[in-house]
Write a structure and sequence with these properties.
Elements lengths: L2 E7 L5 E8 H4 L21 E2 L4 H4 L2 H19 L2 H16 L7 E6 L4 E6 L2 H52 L1
Parallel strand pairs: 3-4
Antiparallel strand pairs: 1-2, 4-5
Helix pairs in contact: 3-4, 3-5, 4-5
């Protein structure tokens, strides 16, 4: 059975093997996408890519990930802090159950430019999911506040209009 090596990159861009993972246990995608060092050259459609920009935002895996985050958001907002990590683990497991299994990837550069991606470790993956949950919660709060402010402004403008109309009729009758 093929085995994959998870690689961690430190500040000096040194690559150090951390663990050898069984493909059967973790359901890794096909090996041709990986070099011998664990660098992923082509992310699958279910992979979640870290980073910024439209290529990251529009990647199928990232879109699927954000829809899962939104799905769990209502549960996440009302549960106690001790249970919030459970939702992150459920999202992680949902991503891993896809075919091919989704992975959380970060860009790997070797000093000469981008080479590919490496898989994030479990701890950082859970942290990324929890951050996405918080970011989505803030985004939803801002949207609700904006809609509330808009409604208040609409009511204020109606009151001003009514007041101006009353003043206009009062002036006309005098």
């Amino acid at each position: 059975m093929p085995r994959l090596i998870t690689v961690v990159i430190n500040e000096k861009n040194d690559m150090k093997p951390v663990k050898v993972l069984s493909q059967a246990k973790y359901g890794r995608p096909n090996l041709p996408q990986h070099s011998s060092l664990g660098i992923i050259t082509t992310p699958t459609k279910n992979d979640i890519i870290s980073g910024r920009g439209t290529h990251v935002y529009n990647h199928h895996g990232n879109i699927n990930f954000m829809s899962l985050v939104k799905k769990y958001q209502s549960k996440h907002e009302v549960c106690p802090k001790s249970l919030k990590k459970v939702h992150s683990k459920e999202i992680y497991l949902n991503i891993r159950k896809l075919n091919p299994p989704g992975r959380f990837l970060k860009t790997y550069t070797n000093g000469n430019g981008r080479v590919g991606w490496v898989e994030m470790d479990y701890k950082n993956t859970i942290l990324k999911i929890r951050q996405a949950m918080r970011d989505n919660e803030l985004r939803e709060m801002r949207i609700r506040q904006t809609l509330k402010n808009y409604a208040v402004r609409e009511e204020d403008s109606k009151r001003v209009e009514e007041s101006e109309q009353r003043q206009g009729t009062a002036i006309a009758t005098n």
